[in-house]
Write a structure and sequence with these properties.
Layout (H helix, E strand, L loop, with lengths): L11 H13 L4 E4 L10 H11 L4 E7 L6 H14 L4 E5 L5 H7 L8 H15 L22 E4 L4 H7 L5 E3 L7 H17 L6 E10 L2 H15 L5 H7 L5 E3 L1 H13 L4 E6 L5 H14 L6
Parallel strand pairs: 1-2, 2-3, 3-4, 4-5, 5-6, 6-7, 6-8
Helix pairs in contact: 2-3, 3-5, 6-7, 10-11
Length: 299
C-alpha cells in the first residue's frame, strides 16, 4: 500500500494514521514516491518518520530520483533510514519523468538517463560498502543495517530501461496505467531474461496502479480527480482523455479478481496507489488482501 503523499492538505496526523494502518494490516510493503515541484512531503524526511511510526512492514521508495540528490548525501540518508527502520528499507530508483523537478534543484538534465542513475548507484554502493570517497579519517556512515545496503529496484515501464538496470537492480518497481496483464507479463519476461543473462537470480517483480475502491461512478471520478491534480504537467484535455482507462476503480470483489490476475503471471508484489487520503480506502483494501492471502481460497 502506497502512502497518500500526492493528495492535498496532508498533515502529520493523517500520514501517521495511514502508516500505522498499513503496518497493522496484511500489507507486505509501505510505499511512497518523490516529487520536488509539488506539495508532497519530502521523501527522505518522511522516511525517518515512517521508520519511527512502523515496526513490521517493509518501507519502499517508489521511486527516488538519485540525480536530484548528491549521491553521497543520498547514500547517508538511506543508510540512516535503513538503520532507523531495523533493516526494513527497499529503495526504488528512477530517472524521473519531469524536467521541472531537475530545474527546481538545479540538477543537470544531461544526467536524466540510465547512465546517470547507474553512476549514482555506483557511488552509493561504495558508501554502503564502507569505502572512503575522500581522504577522510573515517568513511561516510552510518553503515546500513542490511549488508551491502538496501535492496534496489528500478522504477520503469520500458524494456530498454529494464535491461540496462539488470547490472545493479534486484528487481522492478514498475507501473501499469491500463492494468493490461499480458503487456505487464511481457515486461516481466524482459526482466527475467535480462537478469538471467547477467547471471543473477530471478528479479523481484513488482508493479503498481492507481486505485479507488467503491461503487459506481464515484470511484472512477475519484481516480479522474486525482489524475487531474497529479498530472499537472500534462494538458488537462489529455488527462481527461486517458482518465477513463487509467488506473482501477471498482468493488472489493473486482479488486480481488485483479489481484488474482496479476498473481497468475508471477507478480511478486503490487504497490497500490491511493487516489484519496480517506483512510477507509486502506481498511477496505485490507479486507480484500486478507481474503486474497487466505489459505482457504485454494480449496
Amino acid at each position: 500500500m502506497t502512502m497518500p503523499v500526492m493528495e492535498p492538505n496532508l498533515d502529520a496526523a493523517t500520514l501517521r494514521a495511514w502508516a500505522q494502518a498499513i503496518d497493522d494490516g496484511p500489507f507486505s510493503s509501505l510505499c511512497w514516491g518523490e516529487r520536488i515541484a509539488f506539495d508532497n512531503p519530502e521523501s527522505l524526511t518522511l522516511l525517518g518518520a515512517l521508520a519511527a511510526w512502523t515496526e513490521r512492514v517493509r518501507l519502499v521508495t517508489t521511486v527516488v530520483v538519485p540525480q536530484l540528490h548528491d549521491p553521497v548525501m543520498l547514500a547517508k540518508a538511506l543508510a540512516t533510514g535503513d538503520m532507523l527502520s531495523g533493516g526494513r528499507l527497499t529503495v526504488g530508483l528512477g530517472v524521473g519523468g519531469r524536467h521541472e523537478d531537475y530545474h527546481a534543484v538545479g540538477a543537470d538534465l544531461a544526467t536524466q538517463t540510465m547512465r546517470g542513475m547507474a553512476d549514482s548507484v555506483a557511488v552509493m554502493r561504495r558508501i554502503w560498502a564502507g569505502e572512503k570517497v575522500t581522504d577522510s579519517i573515517v568513511p561516510v556512515g552510518p553503515p546500513p543495517l542490511q549488508a551491502g545496503g538496501p535492496r534496489l529496484l528500478v522504477g520503469t515501464i520500458g524494456p530498454k530501461t529494464v535491461r540496462s538496470a539488470a547490472a545493479w537492480a534486484e528487481g522492478l518497481a514498475g507501473m501499469t496505467l491500463d492494468l493490461d496483464v499480458d503487456k505487464e507479463n511481457a515486461l516481466f519476461d524482459v526482466a527475467r531474461t535480462a537478469w538471467a543473462q547477467a547471471g543473477k537470480q530471478s528479479p523481484h517483480l513488482a508493479t503498481s496502479f492507481w486505485f479507488a475502491i467503491g461503487d459506481g461512478d464515484d470511484a472512477r471520478a475519484q481516480v479522474h480527480n486525482h489524475l487531474r491534480r497529479y498530472m499537472n504537467w500534462i494538458p488537462a484535455e489529455y488527462v481527461d482523455a486517458m482518465a477513463p482507462t487509467t488506473g482501477w476503480a471498482g468493488t472489493e470483489a473486482q479488486l480481488l479478481e485483479v489481484l488474482r490476475g496479476f498473481e497468475a503471471i508471477g507478480t511478486d508484489e503490487i504497490h497500490l496507489i491511493p487516489t484519496s487520503s480517506d483512510i477507509d480506502q486502506v481498511r477496505r483494501v485490507a479486507g480484500v488482501v486478507e481474503e486474497f492471502q487466505s489459505p482457504q481460497r485454494a480449496s
